[in-house]
Design goal:
The protein is an alpha/beta fold. The chain has helices at about 15-25, 40-45, 50-70, 80-105, 160, 180-190, 210-220, 310-325, 355-360, 410-420, 425-430, and strands spanning about 5-10, 30-35, 110-115, 115-120, 125, 130-140, 140-145, 170-175, 195-200, 225-230, 230-240, 240-245, 250-255, 255-260, 265, 300, 340, 350, 365-370, 385-395, 400-405. A hairpin with a 5-residue loop joins strand 17 and strand 18. Helix 1 (about 15-25) packs parallel to helix 8 (about 310-325) and helix 3 (about 50-70) crosses helix 6. The termini are far apart.
Amino acid sequence: MTDRDFDLFAIGAGSGGVRAARFSAQRGARVAVAEERYLGGTCVNVGCVPKKLFMYASHFRADLHEASAGYGWTIGETNFDWPTLRDNKTREIERLNGIYEGLLRDAGVQHFDGRATIVDAHSVEVAGQRYTAENILVATGGWPTVPEIPGVEWAVTSNELFSLDELPRKAIVVGGGYIAVEFACIFDGLGVDVTQLYRGPLFLRGFDGDVRRHLAEQVRLRGIDLRLETNVTAIEKKGGGIVATLTDGSALEADLILFATGRHPNVSDLGLEEAGVEMARDGSIRVDAYSRTNVPSIWAIGDVTNRINLTPVAIHEGVCLSETLFNDNPRSPDHENVPAAVFSQPPVGTVGLTEEEARERYSSIDVYRSVFRALKQTLTGGEERTLMKLIVDRETDRVIGLHMVGPEAGEIIQGFAVAIKAGATKADFDATIGVHPTSAEEFVTMRTPIES
């Protein structure tokens, strides 16, 4: 212990900051955390959790009106009420906020409700009050990035989307990352006429090429007007809606336009530069393998470091930090073979290398790919197809990439991620008996690699 006020002062009470604070306090450290917005951060309040709830809501229309008839169900008149979904979501988020508050309190963490800034290497200020700390942790997450174009003030970001007064009849979604793809699918599932615009040749940059192409086909089959190599140059307000001018000179009318055009590290005016903390060119905080900045007493985890911007990764980094600082167990976060999902319709699940990455890294690989109609679709007449793909290092037989586009992809990929992390080989997959009839069994029944 030192004569400072705290052993650790965390700025930001998102998933990573809360986990680091709790675990550190449980190991005997004197810990404080400051949060200027909401407990739980982006994920709980305007990210993963409400988005997944909205995704669930968006599935009902297709199940009720398309899938059910083939299974003998006749559904009468139905109606979707946006305020009911929105308000029920808000109640659930408020419940989670209370849980986070209780977790901090029960762990003995002092919670400051307000904006904290760094004064120097061992001092922070909150609401005009200065506190000293042996270690300072920055875990302030990310913030939506919007382009500087005329009329952009008429657009919304994911921050505002969960609290709209009304559900739009027609929406424009701008962007090609997972947030844009997910919201385009959510809107479409809720009955909104959706146009998605992306400036590049194919969305979900960084994902496996087959996954990207397959999902583009599937969302178009659902009725989403996906326009690639197209962007917005200006927005005008028109009556109760907006008009977007596109790069080809055409105009597109809608009730709402969402910019999901990336996120940037939320580091503005935190005092990092004044404290001498080095920043990367992309605006993120530069850290070493243990999440330590160039200032020995200042650390950073989560999206502000722009390593892998996923909630479970931030949580993992928070655990490693507490181990390093307060458990005499220096531990660096492991960012290899991190599974991820895109909750599109159909969803994407992925772990390991893409085919493109594998071809760059390995001298020879085998690729196994299967595209099929899931059993559920056989009675519905639906056109949806599932994609499954394995990438294998030919020299060691180890499975180095696994990808899926299809129902419950996120749930399925979690289990297979354990196998990939454990170094499973294709022979291990082949020796595993499948659960029949499931889509997941396809991963253990693919026997013939496709030609390069």
